[in-house]
Design goal:
Length: 180
């Protein structure tokens, strides 16, 4: 990739139950020729769709800045809320102030950032990949949190086992009891 090439970032966010559900974000970063440079995704518990949409933009810009990929970036998103606030900075909830601060710090560090709204789920291949990454990240996190919750519900009881000669073992055995 040439140092001054134009980077394109396709982002999306997902939240299973909005607000307060498990959310995910997805990012696809490409060069001028639409070659994929990087894909990434992640998630957060107890979030909103708007936060995940914005986190996707921030994560993409962080990679561009961190690796000095380009001074010129176009961000594509299907979130009118994110695109409009990135361009005009009209209005945002106080619960997202931390993210907007991160965004504007990155905007000051990268010379040229433009934003393009894309209609969601209309077959734009790289946007669809970002959507899939976000959806999978929220699903994977939801599954992990549910598994973690199930593991917490288990109770453990130490008992003394018996040998074949009916003597008690000197070592306790761990007996797992599942509670519903």
């Amino acid at each position: 990739m040439q140092p001054n090439s134009k980077i394109k970032i396709y982002t999306d966010g997902s939240c299973r139950t909005n607000p307060g559900g498990v959310g995910g974000w997805g990012v696809v970063i490409t060069d001028d020729d639409q070659n994929i440079v990087s894909t990434m995704s992640g998630g957060e518990p107890d979030t909103t769709n708007s936060r995940m949409e914005l986190v996707g933009v921030i994560k993409g810009l962080e990679v561009v800045h961190l690796y000095n990929l380009s001074d010129s970036v176009t961000v594509y998103s299907d979130s009118r809320y994110v695109i409009d606030n990135c361009i005009k900075f009209t209005n945002y909830p106080i619960s997202e102030a931390d993210l907007w601060e991160r965004y504007f710090t990155l905007k000051d560090l990268i010379k040229d950032i433009s934003h393009v709204w894309l209609p969601g789920h209309r077959g734009t291949p790289l946007q669809e990949i970002a959507d899939t990454l976000a959806t999978n990240a929220s699903g994977d996190l939801k599954e992990w949190l549910e598994q973690k919750s199930r593991n917490r519900k288990r109770k453990f009881n130490f008992t003394r086992g018996k040998t074949s000669s009916t003597k008690q073992d000197s070592k306790p055995r761990l007996k797992e009891i599942l509670s519903e």
